[in-house]
Amino acid sequence: MTNKDYLEKIKILNSWAKAYYVDDNPIATDEEYDKLYHEVLDYETANPSEALEDSPTKRVGAVVRDEFSKATHIKRMWSMEDVFTTDEVQEWLDRTVKNVGQSSYFCEPKFDGASMNLLYENGKLVRAITRGDGVIGEEVTDNVRTIRSVPLSIDYKEQIEIRGEVVIRKDDFEIINKERLDEGEQPFANPRNAAAGSLRQLDSAVTAKRRLVFYPWGLGENSLTQAKLSEKMDFIHSLGFLQPPYVKECHSIEEIEDFYQFIISKRDEIPMMMDGLVIKVDKVSLQEDLGYTVKVPKWMCAYKFPAVEKVTKVNAITLQVGRTGVITPVAEVEPVEVDGAIIARATLHNFDEIERKGLMIGDSVILIRSGDVIPKITKVLTDRRDGSEVAITRPTACPTCQSELLDEGTLIKCQNLDCPDRVVNSIIHFAKKGCMNIDGLGSKIVEILVKEEKISDILGLYHLKFEDLEGLEGFKEKRISKLLDAIADTKGVPLHRLISAMGIEHIGEVAGKALAEEFGLGIVDATFEEVVAIDGIGEEMANSLLEFMRVNHDFVLKLFDAVQPLVEEKVEAKENPFKDKTVVLTGSMSASRGVVKEMLEKLGAKVSGSVSQKTDYVVYGEDAGSKLAKAESLGVETLTEEEMRKLLS
After folding, report:
1. Which CATH class is domain 308-407?
2. Which CATH entry fits the domain spanning 3-59: 3.40.50.720, 1.10.287.610, 3.40.50.2300, 3.30.2270.10?
3. Could you tell me which of 35, 44, 140, 419 has the fewest CB atoms within 10 Å of its CB?
4. What are the φ and ψ backbone dihedral angles of 64, each rounded to 5 degrees?
5. What are 193-248's pLDDT values in tens digits?
6. DSSP one-letter code for 606
């Protein structure tokens, strides 16, 4: 076989594979495919330097790793806002119409799997990264290469991130679980867990056997010029990616609701697990106008399928102590299968809810679960009582440390800072992604370190030594070194991340940034008046912060000394036309709107997402939407991007 013959046979094999795995329309028999496949494999074995990266032989999986490395997405992967009723969908639509006017909506099924980001450069798949915390995920390229519906090469040379869901079809899931049972292994709880677990196999040959499927649903970094997301996705599908079984362009709540009910009616026919309908503002320029919250895009939401209800029985109430000391009651119920998962516990939130529901131990109850929502009890079936039920009383002592509890009505709190449950949960929160991101410090490791009295609080992490961890179960030399390095790497983090990681009730990332910029390390001595004067900080947040600092004043100072956080100084902007002004951006500009927003904020402007009487300027670019029209109707001053830059020069 010549190299020319080899290249031609690769082309044929790839076309046959696409017809089989993507188009669901085989154009060759298994025997023909296998014969040609082995001819190609024989040539590659004899001529390894000529083997192509996108050869079908690369799909079998042959890489075994010690662990997965971390990788950063070029553009952040976001979560999605969940809505559950027609009224909530209407509220979401009203918000989009208010901000950008009428729009078309791109709707498609929401598959229940593991989110994945594929990076292509020069037409080649160069990296596959799990969603992770949205910024950093695990690099699983070797495993993803084994997924037949992921093209190893595409007819598009620009850099592009293609996002989608890795799923397992329901019939394949049954086959996998049967094989696991035959081999004496524990079956997977549901297809989503099977997909996620398969992606994280250290041996890619195992992943190759798991029948994974990839469905694209969006884009990260890209330079595609189509005006609508649906048009961009049509192009992505033309590159050889799977298309969802149904999509629809909708223009009203009625059309969305009709399509939603249609998808529900097809739920048993569609071979993948689904948990809702995704609704997206279709026009890309309007997506940019709407922007993002801290967690989710404002231009898309997930209309979740109705919750699955089951009847079960409450056997006991367990009390959980959170990192801030709040006691949460949890119902231990007779295990019941709900939408592919075995449920044995349900949250009750607080004792006021128990009293409202009139719940007793021994009651039969209706339990619901929808998608990833935590199972909860919606109704107590009092007509099924037989007199053996036992009343549930409000606790007066902490279930862990036996300290007296503070009962504030809705919230019941353990005030003991040395309570083991508070210690464990506070350290877990401190170490998690989005806080200090200490790789390798999961909940089980934290429990071991606290149980073995190696640490008693988050400050203890910074005093750990190699010899402290030697001999502990599961701690080998390499693991100890990695953990200590990960802890050391948190030194010098921005102050706002450290504030957020402390687990102060009501103080999240946004509030942490505002507080860090305003007070720096002086936050420990801030006054109520100073805190509530910050835009976006209310009385409840201020009281929570001050109480935390009062109780933990010296501890926080020691933590500052150990971590040496980077203090984000609040730079006073020089006088300019935009200082202390409220500005709204709309339309396409010479730079991305994020870059323009950052520039204006450095000039002391407050960049808002919506136009009102309080808006000082609306700066607009090409294809400006309804925000420009609204500004003109309100008499708000408008500037082109060029006029804005002239003012600054």
Report:
1. mainly beta
2. 1.10.287.610
3. 35
4. -115, 125
5. 888 888 888 888 888 888 899 999 999 999 999 999 999 999 999 999 999 999 99
6. E
